[in-house]
Amino acid sequence: MEYIKVPLSVIGNYKRESIFWVLCVIVAGQFGILCNWFVQTVFTKKSFMNTFISDFNNGNFYIFTISLMASSFFIILISFLYDEKSHFKSLKIFTLFILGFGILWCGSIHSLVQAKPSYFYGESFFKYYLQIVGYLTGVFASVYAACIVKLDYDNERHKKLDDKSFHATTDTSVKEMDAKSKDTTKDRKGRSL
Questions:
Q1: Residue ranges in the chain assigned as alpha helix (H)
Q2: Which of 46, 86, 87, 189 can bridge 50 by disulfide, Cβ–Cβ 3.0-4.6 Å?
Q3: Where is average pLDDT lowest: 48-62, 64-78, 132-146, 177-191?
């Protein structure tokens, strides 16, 4: 539970950035869907509910979820690859796995719904329920990913989440290599150093 609560506590530390992120990413990301609702309600005289159902039938929420998780995936990947201090590696790998699986899952379900195979039962389950679950999971996973990027190693509460074994293994291997280099008098071909 600590691995979920502690990263989310970053929101309290960066309130302005968190609000700005939610406004720009989550709310502005819905702009296409909001425009679609407005256009269909005003110009085609459809009811709001029919417009909402139309968005579900087209898989618009799957598409938004895939885009949101893909952007979060690459933010974590860049942080993982280019973090010189190598902090929170296990947490980042876990988050990359969850986001990658979520992208594949939403993409597969969306493709299945769009293909409409004849053996496809429970279409409403895939169109509506899984789309809502996928959407909410995608939003949560993206918020979580944004929080992981903001974890601060100098914060004692955050430091508990760091992968100590990674640093210990790295430190041990560096010490072993250093000790071996001091004892080495010949190279691999037997020449004196």
A1: 2-8, 10-13, 15-21, 28-29, 31-43, 48-58, 60-82, 89-115, 123-124, 130-149, 156-159, 164-183
A2: 46
A3: 177-191
Query: In this structure, what DSSP letter does residue 30 have?
Result: T
Q: What distance in Å separates the CA atoms of residue 30 and residue 40, rounded to the nearest whole number?
A: 15
* φ, ψ dihedrals at 47, nearest 5°: -75, 160
Q: Give CA torsion, residues 111, 113, 114, 118, to 10 deg.
A: 110
Three-state secondary structure call for residue 29 = helix
pLDDT tens string 21-73? 888 888 887 887 888 888 888 888 888 888 888 888 788 888 889 999 999 99
How far CA 97 is from CA of 59, 75, 87, 90, 105, in Å, comes to: 23, 13, 17, 11, 12
- Residue 51, token pair as written in the block: 């417009």
Those residues whose C-beta lies under 8 Å from the C-beta of residue 33, and which sit 6 or more positions away, are: 55, 60, 61, 64
pTM (predicted TM-score): 0.71
163 Cβ neighbours under 8 A, 6+ residues apart: 88, 89, 90, 91
